[in-house]
Amino acid sequence: MLTLVVRRLGLLVVVLFGLSLLLFAWVRALPGDPARALLGEKATPAGIAAINERYGFDQPVWQQYVTYLGRLLRGDFGASINTGQPVVQTFTERFPATIELALAALLLAIAVGIPLGYLAARRRGGWLDHLVVGGSLLGVVVPVFFLAVILKYVLAIELGWFPTSGRQDARIDATHVTNFYVLDGLLTREWDASWDALVHLVLPALALGSIPLAIIVRITRASVLDVLGDDHVRTAQAKGLPRAIISRRHVLRNALLPVSTTLGLQAGALLSGAVLTETVFSINGIGSYLFDAVTQLDYPVLQGFILFIAVVYALVNLVVDVSYGFIDPRVRVS
Amino acid sequence: MTLLEVEDLRVTFSRKGSPDFTAVDGVSFDVDAGEVVGLVGESGCGKSVTSLAVMGLLPRRSARVSGSVRFDGTDLLRASPAQLARRRGKDLAMVFQDPMTSLNPVLTLGRQLTEVLRTHTDLDRAAAKKEAVELLGRVGIPDPRRRVGEYPHQLSGGMRQRVLIAIALACSPRLIIADEPTTALDVTIQAQVLDVLTGLVRESGTAMVLITHDLGVVAGTCDRVNVLYAGKVVERARREELFARPRHRYTTGLLAAVPRVDAPEGTALQPVPGSVQDRLPWDVGCAFAPRCAVADEACRAGLIGLDAAGGPAAHSARCVHPAELEVAR
Amino acid sequence: MTALDALPPTGPGSPDATGEASGEAGAGPWRSAWRRLRRNPAGIVGAVIVVLFVLVAVFAPLLAPYRPATAEWFGQVTPTSVPGPSAEHPLGLDSFGSDLLTQLLYGARSSLVIGVVSTGVGLAAGALLGILAGGIGGKVDTVVMRVVDVLLSIPSLLLAVSVAAILDRGPLAIMLAVAAAQVPIFARLLRASLLAQRGQDYVVALRSLGLRRRRIVVGHMLPNSLGPVLVQATLTLATAVIEVAALSFLGLGDPNPAVAEWGRMLVTAQARLDQAPMLALYPGLAIAVTALGFTLLGEALREALDPRSSR
């Protein structure tokens, strides 16, 4: 187990190194001149030279890279050309919103998807099964941003049950400790702030949750059907165990193994979807930050972002693999 | 005293898009307390389906079961699922064919043993664990104290089958159904596992239905034998009687296919020609007729009954031209 | 299902032993796949949607009552209302004053072109990598698969954003962006398929006959991978349509905001969600129905080509 973690972390370092090289080369190959882009219409040779010197654009490329890598190792992702804010600082401010949204969506998808998939498999061919299979197909083909728009129109604009945008009502004077607003409210005992953040989270999480929900439901259903046909389930029945124990200990537990591996693969889709959902509900997460960076060629932000995502992605998958080892003894030993 | 009485058991499978298939076609047999009874036949003859029907383990949706299965006075086919579950594992237990897949891969052996104990007895966690170690030792698993915390994939096939036997014996059931308990194992350990099983069954006075395609297995273990073909019992006798005077042509065929130490040197083994799929519907005649060397029109003249010949030995066969008559002729 | 699968299928009632199999004897795998496909109602629905979508896309200039993205009736659009259906405009106007029906029909066109081109490019590049990795093996395999792993470790939208950032905004950027996200999928698929075949007896036999590796890979192994690739391509078209819409939703497409693109139409519709929800509903439905068509067709193809996989 430990060797797995060490080996994977080693691999991550290699991938990150390669990625940083790639990203660096890519950003240097961009058609636009960042200094010119920054100054826009007012660009003068002197102005460009000043910017170049300030950001090190005039040094040899390899030296820029070494400097860049050194900074990375010190945890310094540079400052946004656009806003002058350190990239890391903006991330810590904005990333919690995205994570909060993605986690809420994932939890929702797990809480709904696993029972639904299980019930559909147990009543295979029944109305619930047809509903679940059809619904999961819809979850795949309806784009997140469209679902978000529909939810916003029906439940927020027409019915007024939920707020239309943002993370928290501006009139609430909430203290923010971690920038996870729901958690902040709990930590500071500002219950109304926590509740308001949660209410703001409902629609975005519903929309974003549709992606993992559709996949979790499908895989749970298929996996339960597989396990139900396994010999060991028949052994459990022959033992005269109560139905509930057979379902929980012998069917669901085994069936969840394949489901848990796919959760890691959801991280990428969740992140992409979160960016889209954030734009519909005007949430100040990394989504808008990223797209400002793209349109304005803010390359320190882009680099930092991609590296950051790669790390998050790799760590999520490592955590999933390790936990997989804990629930499946066959993996643990080999 | 009769412990299990199966009467006119019929199992029909229906699947969408294909005609119904009757796997068990009016099977009757009984088992006395403490007795070992064999159900013998080729794969596809309905012996495994019979055992699953007795245990109530057939899929409810696709299998129709009729007849009666009287166990210790109650008809299991008419018992509610909850009543059945209360008896399964406690009064009647089953040992399955494939030890590689019949244990849950993600639970420890100890857990799989204690859960049956804790369901049917009032042992507490510690006592159940102690009993599990005890049981593993009884089925001949070395170092049971350590093994109890291991997972199925850490054991060999023979060891896993021993664990399945331990699970079946855990609550001292009155009847064990063993469905081809050694078929999936290496030849070298088949005998060991069979010895453990029969030894423990005899020792505890548990009755057993032993399902096998191997007459060699029957010869060493069973008190009485039922030979099945195409979903019906075709011959029934005490073991010595069956081996000494087989009557049904299918039984003689099976016996000729078993290697024997006492056979004259140079005797070739005679496989039964054809396969179970070349069969006649029973209401047309003897299902075995297409594969039988002595079959004639009489064999194709409608359903043939199980005769009660043989007197006190109760040796009956479902055959128009039984082997002994030919000898007498 | 426990007992049923294990026991009686040897009997005369079992579907494997009789009827169907012999009835299809002599027909090639493609023909019997075609037969299974025609019997699958979901597949037919999918095929109909796909055909309609393609027809609309191709004949948009003939079907549409006006020219797209003209903003001709901009004067009729006020800050508080967008004109609804009328005799001249069956679905009304969009918020830039173009005919909504025309915009929708031309939107199919841009979705089809961008979707097909990006899937084609992704397929070609992915297939090339996959063939290199699976056909040659060894060091080439290792290197190619590391590259593919890195590509996979970047979330697809992020990859798309990166490409769009390099190429600047526009349809070409979207095409390449979506294609880039598809490369690893096809590379892995082909590699796995080729590797699975490499150990098979017929390949060993061909090699023992002295055929050159390229002949074996191109002439014998590749055709056997065609089915899975076709299935994947159809399913990928569904995601491509959605991703194309997502990228133009985020403003990475044509810089002209009035362009006839479903994703972009959805963005501009958001500002008037409370006045004219239909402006969002139509393009959103168009995206979903198109994706549904390709998904249904793709899954039906999968089942038709590999009957065992049906569940």
Automatic annotation (TrEMBL), chain A:
CDD domains listed in its UniProt record: TM_PBP2
TM segment ranges: 101-119, 131-155, 197-217, 255-281, 301-327
Chief location: membrane
Entries under InterPro entries matching the protein: BPD_transp_1_N, MetI-like, MetI-like_sf
Source organism superkingdom: Bacteria
Alphabetically ordered keywords of this record: Cell membrane, Membrane, Transmembrane, Transmembrane helix, Transport
Cell location: Cell membrane
Membrane topology: Multi-pass membrane protein
Similarity field: Belongs to the binding-protein-dependent transport system permease family.
Protein name: ABC transporter permease
Organism encoding this protein: Kineococcus halophytocola
UniProtKB/TrEMBL annotation, chain B:
Keyword Cytoplasm annotated: no
NCBIfam families: oligo_HPY
Subcellular location: Cell membrane
Membrane topology, as annotated: Peripheral membrane protein
Example of a GO MF term: ATP binding
Gene3D superfamilies attached to this UniProt entry: P-loop containing nucleotide triphosphate hydrolases
ABC transporter domain: residues covered: 4-255
Protein name: ABC transporter ATP-binding protein
Family named by the database record: Belongs to the ABC transporter superfamily.
Domain of life assignment: Bacteria
Species of the source: Kineococcus halophytocola
Keyword Transport appears in the UniProt entry: yes
InterPro entries in the cross-refs: AAA+_ATPase, ABC_Ni/Peptide_Import, ABC_transporter-like_ATP-bd, ABC_transporter-like_CS, Oligopep_ABC_C, P-loop_NTPase
Pfam families hit by this protein: ABC_tran, oligo_HPY
Keywords: ATP-binding, Cell membrane, Membrane, Nucleotide-binding, Transport
From TrEMBL, chain C:
Cellular compartment(s): Cell membrane
Region (Disordered) location: 1-27
Superkingdom of the source species: Bacteria
Keywords, in A-Z order: Cell membrane, Membrane, Transmembrane, Transmembrane helix, Transport
Record's signal peptide: none
Protein name: ABC transporter permease
Family recorded in the similarity comment: Belongs to the binding-protein-dependent transport system permease family.
Domain ABC transmembrane type-1: 108-298
Pfam families hit by this protein: BPD_transp_1, OppC_N
Keyword Cytoplasm listed: no
Membrane spanning stretches: 41-64, 112-135, 147-166, 172-190, 229-252, 280-301
Feature: compositional bias, Low complexity: 17-27
Species the sequence originates in: Kineococcus halophytocola
Topology with respect to the bilayer: Multi-pass membrane protein
UniProt xrefs under InterPro entries: BP-dependent_transpt_permease, MetI-like, MetI-like_sf, OppC_N
